[in-house]
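Homework help board

Subject: predicted structure for assignment chain

Our instructor gave us this sequence and asked us to write out the predicted structure in token form, then describe one feature. I got the tokens but I'm not sure how to describe them. Can anyone check?
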Amino acid sequence: MEMLPFDNRDGLIWMNGEFIAWNDAKCHVINQGMHYASSVFEGERAYKGKIFKSEEHTKRLFKSANTLGMDMPFTEKQINEAKDELINKMKLQDCYVRPIVWRGSKQMGLSTSNSDINVAIAAWDDWASYFKIEDRKAGLRLITSPWKRPSPDTAPCEAKASGPYVICTMSKSFAEQKGYHDALMLDYRGYVAEGTGANIFFIKDNDIHTPIPDCFLNGITRQTVIEMLSSQGFNIIERHIMPDEISNYDEAFLTGTAAEITPLQSIDEIKFKTGDGTKNFKFMQDYHNLVRS
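My token output:
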């Protein structure tokens, strides 16, 4: 079944304090958000009508906006209430929620001293994953991207800002053109960083290694998974990982709001264990149960 384009759907979008028809949620082609990547956003999931970690996502949205120098015209409480009300009005249960904040058309150019700040929230039927169900079960195939995560003094790595995501879309396109599901991104030092839109973990016996998020986003799902696995008795090791160490691990997986926990079957020529009986398969089920409990 072909997916409907996102500019032509039924439903409502919350925009600048009002619920409007989905197809009426528009902004002018001349706006700072589009021309200068002056926007921040969140990706959230609702299960059984309740957004998982909703308040944490809103706090990060406000932190991202503050990092880019945007003064939010609404409170965190108003945003949290708007998200819940939107889901109720749309009669959604399992769904994806996308709040976004951007500079509008009041001012154009690099100066932001007189910019207008806009806020919108959209929600749509469950975006089950960035990856197909059958691919998740079999494990994803990754290739190392030629594009790297920049130094934190050159890009706002702690903000979920639209600008740095161009590296992700370029890396994703590179991977798909090569016949892979996704790309592994290294950072500016050559350390393993993450996937194009998800954090990465490696398993060896009872130890689970994951890169230190010092130049990329410390995902809310990442934090949840670390807490979940720590409570199960696994030893979580956050450290800098070199690419030539990847072959030392038995299993690997990605984490993210849309990806949840997704096993990997390979990175470049390196193979990992996948399927029934593996730890990552169990973790995938554990996380599924946790967010829906």
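Reply (TA_rk): Your tokens look well-formed. For the description, you could write something like this. The mean pLDDT is 95. That's the kind of observation they're looking for.
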